[in-house]
Amino acid sequence: MMSEQMETVGRVNKLSFGYKENIVLNDVNLKIKQGETLSILGPNGAGKTTLIKAMLGQIKPKKGEISLLGYQAGDIGIRRLTGVMLQVSGVPDMSTVSEHIKLFQSYYPNPMSYQKVLGYSGLQEKEHEYSKNLSGGQKQRLLFALAICGNPKVLFLDEPTVGMDIDSRKALWEAIEQLKLTGTSIVLTTHYLEEADRLSDRVVILNRGNIIHEGTPKEIKTLIQVKCIKFTCNVEITNVSRAVNLSSHYDSDLQQFQYTIESSCAEETLKELFNRNVPLSDLTVTGADLEQAFTMINSLDDNSETILEVE
Ligand SMILES: Nc1ncnc2c1ncn2[C@@H]1O[C@H](COP(=O)(O)OP(=O)(O)OP(=O)(O)O)[C@@H](O)[C@H]1O
Q1: Interface predicted TM-score (ipTM) of this complex, two decimals
Q2: Residue 45: CB within 6 Å of ligand 1?
Q3: Does any ligand 1 atom lie closer than 6 A to the CB of residue 47?
Q4: Where are the domains of the chain?
Q5: May I ask the CATH architecture of the domain 8-215?
Q6: Per the database record, which ranges form the ABC transporter domain (predicted)?
Q7: Residue 207's pLDDT is what?
Q8: pLDDT at residue 308 in the model
Q9: Atom 10 of ligand 1: nearest residue by CA position
Q10: For residues 24 and 53, is the Cβ–Cβ distance under 8 A?
């Protein structure tokens, strides 16, 4: 559990940014505390990478202030004290893992030891391999290794486990947890709920450039316990309790409606349907995916507290 007393190492204050007329970040406020893992979740295009780039000073905000480790965004001091793994990063093919790591160590005044970098990234057996011969998951590990070469006080990881198999993913999670224990703050973006759940002290949800929720993983999980209910039925249904989305399609051959209902409490929605004596067939209930959950959170923004009480 995060403590209010934990030192704030980063602060984003009323940050707005846009590409031409496309507003990407809208009045965003955020704090990063020492030794915490903060996950930024949100659908594609929500502004997660843009927010990280702004904190690193790679893009200039239209409005607002960002400070990190005592520096203003863009200051060279930030580069020395942070590490970053961005989605689009790549490395030259014709250098070995060890050459890449040693080069990156040379950029920093206080680099992490070579063996530690290898250990955290799990690349011991690939030390002398050319990067072009690494698998996709191993390339991700190399990018992680390069991100930690400088002994970062704040480590930014933008979807670090994309393309990794479950064993590699778990190994990286362990490395992240160990780094956190040394006092490093981690800022993580991910599309994997399990990843955010396992690693984070705090989660913020970004949608269309706005932070629409902030909480512990437990709170966010409770919030997005949305279920997807599908069935066919020969009567028209327009309104049921706990439905956050109701869509239907009339199949004229079968003379039936095919319904999809996203519900914040499947039990209650189904109970109501059964009480109404609606004749349901082909009924399935599945967990909604993250995109559906984000839509739901957005639409329920005002009464989220009610849902939080469910647990
Ligand atoms: N260089 C750019 N020029 C113009 N628009 C851009 C540029 N980079 C990003 N955008 C736009 O900014 C918005 C936010 O993009 P961003 O990459 O921050 O989203 P994201 O939340 O990281 O998405 P994803 O989960 O897909 O990685 C998108 O609408 C995107 O099209």
Answers
A1: 0.97
A2: yes
A3: yes
A4: 8-215, 223-308
A5: 3-Layer(aba) Sandwich (3.40)
A6: 10-233
A7: 87
A8: 29
A9: 19
A10: no
